[in-house]
Amino acid sequence: MRVVIAEDNVLLSSGLELLLNSQGFEVVTIAVDAPGFLTAVETHRPDVTIVDVRLPPSFRDEGIRAAVQARRDHPGLPVLVLSQYVEQEYAGRLLADGRGGIGYLLKDRVSRVADFTDALRRVAGGGTAMDPEVIAQLLAHGDPVDALTARERQVLALMAEGHDNATIAQRLVITDNAVHKHIGNVFLKLGLSAGDSGHRRVRAVLAYLRRHGGTTPDAASASPLRGGEPG
């Protein structure tokens, strides 16, 4: 799996390169600024990208703006944002096209190599991998989804983190059948019928996060999260 990294911190980028290469990934190039990242994506057409939010020259939001641009130029490009910060506006924009292949992890909260590489593979496969803190900040800046119960919102938030049904059941200490029922209710309340042309699991996650992130465009096609739809 070919990876392009956008990270100006040499120690971090070198560590990521060594780590990913040892885990079966191929880091094709490391960009240190936004223009270099966009050029690398155009040149190498990677399977997945890792992008820091803040890049030279101003170290504000150049990285995540470049990620948004790259997704616009290459629809569905898998992007895993790896940062110390949550940029709510641009996180919402990344989610706004309704496609999967999006992750947003906080550097200080990544504690296990296996969790990180699993998240990267999930994003590359069209799923989502959202840090709970990112989800919490997005949810704090929008109207609640009144149709969903508190438990249904919990289930959907765990889906956004990339968990499958069995893990959700373990986290919430409920049965698999209960998870299945809650997800079915979520699909129903968000208007995602069984005949929906997209994959409902990803579409539900993106619709939820887009709405709370402050953007409301129609959802496009998406790829399934690991674990698939309940059934």
Mean pLDDT: 81
Return the structural class.
Answer: alpha/beta
Strand order of the largest sheet: 2-1-3-4-5-6
How many β-strand stretches? Answer: 6
The outline comes out as: globular
Main sheet overview: 6 strands, parallel
What separation lies between the terminal Cα atoms?
30 Å
**What's the number of helices?**
10
**Beta fraction of the residues?**
5-15%
Description:
The chain contains 10 helices and 6 strands. By secondary structure, the chain is of the alpha/beta class. Strands 2-1-3-4-5-6 form a 6-stranded parallel β-sheet, sandwiched between helices. α3 (62-73) links the parallel β3 (48-51) and β4 (79-83). α2 runs parallel beside α3 and α3 runs parallel beside α4 (88-95). The two termini are 30 Å apart. Mean pLDDT is 81; it is low at 214-231.
